[in-house]
Design a protein that fits this description.
about 260 residues; alpha/beta; Rossmann fold; six-stranded mixed sheet; 9 helices; DUF1194; vWFA_dom_sf
Length: about 260
C-alpha cells in the first residue's frame, strides 16, 4: 500500500521513519514552514519563535490530551524552492507536556537560514511523503503549510494538492501577509483557492508580526481538535473562477522576459 501511494503521488526520497511505542494517534501532523528569502531574518526568527511558543503552550497540550487517544504524531521541515533536508525533524509522539517541550527544543535549536524561490508543490509532496511513510494510524492526516507568497518554482501547486487530497490528507494554510503579496487578490484567497483542501480545510492570515504566535497556536489547536475557525475563508478543493493558481510562475517568468 505504501509503495502504491508513493508511486501515485510521484514521491521519492522518503524520510526515514522514527520508531514509536504504539501506532495509534488522533492526528498525524506535518508542519511545513516557509523560509524563502522574501522574508528577512527577523521575520523568520519571529516565525520560529511562534512555533516554539505554540508547541509549549498549555492550550496546545490540552488540545492533545483532549483527543480520543490523547496523543498525536508531529513532524517538521522547512522549504523554499526545495525542501531543506537538514531541517527535517522526524516523527515524534506528543502525549505529555514533556513531549511537546522536547519537540519544541529541537526546533528552537535549528540555525536560521533562508533559501531562494517558493515551491509550495514541493512542500506538499514532501509532507505527503512523510505521512505515507509514517508508522502511525490516525483518523486525520494533516499537512500544515505556512508561506508568504504564491508557488513560483517546481511543479504547479494544484496537482500536488489534488493528489494529497485524493490520498485522504488535509492541507491547511497559514498565509503570512506582513508585506504586499504577489497574489493580486490577497495571499489568503490564493491559499484558499489553490493550496488548501480536504474536509474542513482552512487558511489563517497573519498580517502583523505580533500576531504570529497566537495565529500558530490557534491553527495547531484547530487542527488537533478537528474544529473549523468561524468566519474564515475555507475551501475543500478546486480553484474558484478568477483565481489564477499559476500567478507566481507567470510573474517569475515575466522577470526574465523583460
Amino acid at each position: 500500500m505504501l509503495t502504491t501511494l508513493a508511486v501515485l503521488m510521484g514521491l521519492s526520497g522518503l524520510v526515514p521513519i522514527a520508531q514509536a511505542a504504539g501506532s495509534e494517534v488522533d492526528v498525524t501532523l506535518v508542519l511545513a514552514v516557509d523560509t524563502s528569502r522574501s522574508m528577512d531574518f527577523e521575520e523568520i526568527g519571529i516565525q520560529r519563535e511562534g512555533y516554539v511558543e505554540a508547541l509549549k503552550h498549555k492550550e496546545f497540550i490540552d488540545a492533545v490530551k483532549g483527543g480520543l487517544t490523547g496523543r498525536i504524531a508531529i513532524s517538521y521541515f522547512e522549504w523554499a524552492g526545495y525542501v531543506v533536508q537538514d531541517s527535517v525533524i522526524d516523527w515524534q509522539v506528543i502525549e505529555t507536556e514533556e513531549d511537546a517541550i522536547a519537540f519544541a527544543d529541537k526546533l528552537e535549536a535549528r540555525p536560521i537560514a533562508t533559501q531562494r524561490r517558493t515551491s509550495i508543490s514541493t512542500a506538499i509532496a514532501q509532507g505527503a511523503s512523510m505521512i505515507v511513510s509514517s508508522p502511525f494510524q490516525s483518523r486525520r492526516q494533516v499537512i500544515d503549510v505556512s508561506g508568504d507568497g504564491p508557488n513560483n518554482s517546481g511543479d504547479p501547486v494544484t496537482p500536488a494538492r489534488d493528489k494529497a487530497i485524493e490520498a485522504g490528507m488535509i492541507i491547511n494554510g497559514l498565509a503570512i501577509m506582513l508585506r504586499p503579496s504577489d497574489a493580486p487578490n490577497g495571499l489568503d484567497k490564493y491559499y484558499a483557492d489553490c493550496v488548501i483542501g480536504g474536509p474542513g480545510a482552512f487558511v489563517l492570515p497573519v498580517r502583523k508580526i505580533e500576531d504570529f504566535a497566537v495565529a500558530v497556536r490557534r491553527k495547531l489547536v484547530l487542527e488537533i481538535s478537528d474544529l473549523s475557525p468561524p468566519a474564515m475563508v475555507q475551501k475543500i478543493s478546486g480553484a474558484e473562477a478568477g483565481t489564477d493558481c499559476l500567478i507566481g510562475e507567470k510573474q517569475w517568468r515575466d522577470i526574465f522576459d523583460r
